[in-house]
């Protein structure tokens, strides 16, 4: 049986199911991460070209359920990998909840994510690992832009 897909923003996403929260019905969609997405997402060229100037606007909502903050866009719950979820929350915390200075951009958030990866691993990343992960986060930013949760 083929999986059901629905268009969210510019991407066709697989429907994982439906859920009712506080009387509202939401469709849960699986958002691919950089490993799952084949090729480059449509917004990749934009993200790559504007890495040092782009200040994303968070267009979704965060639904707080216990300790969790669940990303919602319209009537869709975005099912993200843990890494991508943490990245989206970092974007939210910097650009929506915080008051970043004018020099803060998506690259600043990616660098903070890389520093957190190093902290968790207990070692510095090699320059190649840092470059690979920087590109990975850039691809994930493009995916989030294409879904429409950030613009």
TrEMBL record:
It comes from the Archaea. This is Uncharacterized protein. It comes from Sulfuracidifex metallicus DSM 6482 = JCM 9184.
């Amino acid at each position: 049986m083929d999986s059901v897909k629905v268009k969210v923003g510019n991407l066709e996403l697989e429907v994982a199911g439906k859920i009712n929260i506080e009387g509202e019905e939401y469709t849960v969609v699986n958002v691919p991460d950089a490993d799952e997405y084949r090729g480059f997402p449509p917004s990749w060229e934009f993200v790559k070209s504007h890495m040092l100037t782009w200040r994303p606007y968070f267009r979704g909502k965060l639904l707080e359920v216990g300790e969790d903050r669940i990303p919602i866009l319209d009537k869709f719950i975005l099912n993200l990998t843990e890494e991508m979820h943490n990245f989206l929350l970092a974007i939210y915390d910097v650009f929506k909840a915080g008051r970043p200075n004018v020099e803060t951009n998506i690259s600043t958030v990616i660098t903070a994510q890389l520093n957190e990866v190093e902290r968790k691993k207990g070692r510095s990343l090699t320059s190649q690992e840092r470059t690979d992960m920087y590109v990975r986060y850039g691809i994930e930013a493009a995916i989030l832009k294409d879904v429409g949760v950030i613009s």
